[in-house]
Amino acid sequence: MAKDYGFNLKVCRPYRAKTKGKVERFNGYLKSCFITPLVASLKQAGLSLDVDTANAQVGNWLHEVANQRIHATTNEKPQVLLEKERFSLQPLPEGMTSRLTSITIKQRQAIPIESFQHPLSVYDQLLEVSDEFAITTHPACL
């Protein structure tokens, strides 16, 4: 799939700031600035974090916190940079979106809170759920 999009995959050493470390750093930021505070506030209310709660809260957190901060490397807000880059982005090549498949989920499983104790970098799967359908992408499925 990388070839179809015109880029090459490169295996990087973990925690190396010039390569993969920047991506892994965001995972740490997400955990320390979103997941941990959310778990703490839910715990005070006698609740626990589940997928539905995290999904319901993350959009607001991105809009109000993560995308509004001044990024240390770029010295700009990520939201501002995205708006600037949006004009340069090109559409996907024809037929590339046909690899996405819709499935029906009969039962949603909550992720145990213990799973959030692992680094987020271990999760290779991205699951996006809407009221009407679920789209899942995973390297093994592409």
Describe this structure in words.
By secondary structure, this protein is mainly α. It has one domain (2-141). The chain is built from 4 helices and 3 strands; from the N terminus they run ααααβββ. It has helices at residues 2-5, 20-44, 51-66, 78-86, and strands spanning 102-103, 126-129, 134-137. A 3-stranded antiparallel sheet has the order 1-3-2, with no helix packed on it. Strand 2 and strand 3 form a beta hairpin. The protein starts with a helix and ends in a 5-residue tail after the last strand. The relative contact order is 0.12.
Summarize the structure.
With 142 residues, the chain is mainly α.
Shape: extended
Overall pLDDT confidence: 73
Tell how many strands the DSSP assignment holds: 3
> What kind of sheet is the major sheet?
3 strands, antiparallel
| Number of helical segments with 4 or more residues | 4
- Fraction of residues in β-strands: 5-15%
Lateral arrangement of strands in the main beta sheet: 1-3-2
Which features characterize this protein?
single chain, 142 residues, 7% strand, 3 strands
What is the strand and helix layout of this fold?
Blueprint: H1 2-5, H2 20-44, H3 51-66, H4 78-86, E1 102-103, E2 126-129, E3 134-137
Antiparallel strand pairs: 1-3, 2-3
